[in-house]
Amino acid sequence: MEKMRLNKFIAHNTNYSRREADELIQKGKVSINGRLVSDMGVSVSMDDKVRIGSHIVKKKNDFTMIVYNKAKGELVTKKDDRGRKTIYDSLPKGFSKFVSIGRLDYASEGLLLLTDSPAIATALMKSDIEREYYLKIKGEINEEVKTAMREGFFAADATKGAHAKTQIKSMEFKPFVAFDIFGSSGGYTKLRVMINEGKNRELRRFFGYFDLEVMDLKRVSFGRVELGMLKEGKWRYFEKSEYDDLRDFLKTNGIRY
Fold first, then answer.
1. Strands 109-115, 213-222: parallel, antiparallel or unpaired by DSSP?
2. Which residues carry out catalysis?
3. Intra-chain end-to-end CA distance of the chain, in Å
4. pTM recorded for the entire structure
5. Is 145 left (phi over 0), alpha (psi -120 to 50) or beta?
């Protein structure tokens, strides 16, 4: 049976943060199946009864959201016929049925949201919630590209930067929400961009249209959910404030789950 660290279990199912959970454990206020624990490294299964003082920790059963820091060279898919590594090889087996909210391609990295609710995944994928990325581009960003970022455009041929087997040939690019160019050196340009849609390889296709190759692409936020200090290949549950934001989004948009 899948186990998780006690502080993660408490943080996921209560309003306490992981740090606060550690403090409760240290102070001898947490028990597992009637036995007080003081070891912060202890793990629990979903069948264990965890109490803080006399109050039992009730397990959330509506839906679960996690943040994963995807590494380059991992595929966002359940199986790969060529045997390449997928995100599910890095995640605990308990998340094998979770679905990703959008994808990051093989060469991209950074923040990926996953959930056990397909309805929520679909709603977030189709939403106009802002996504923030850091990019390294081969080439320089000229005024034509800046104008396209500010105003958007339609590309009849948007196959440069796309997967070789893509069925999507043309693409409408919305104006970027924001962008910052950090400067160019050695033939490369680094920049931060914020967009509010998540089409297939959208950023690679956008810059590819101008013969600019995206060398590095890292997503660092989705709405108010940030990658922060989460290490590559690691995951965490949503925090209470992130769940609150998501429930507001679901209620506002009338999304049933």
1. parallel
2. 105
3. 26
4. 0.77
5. alpha
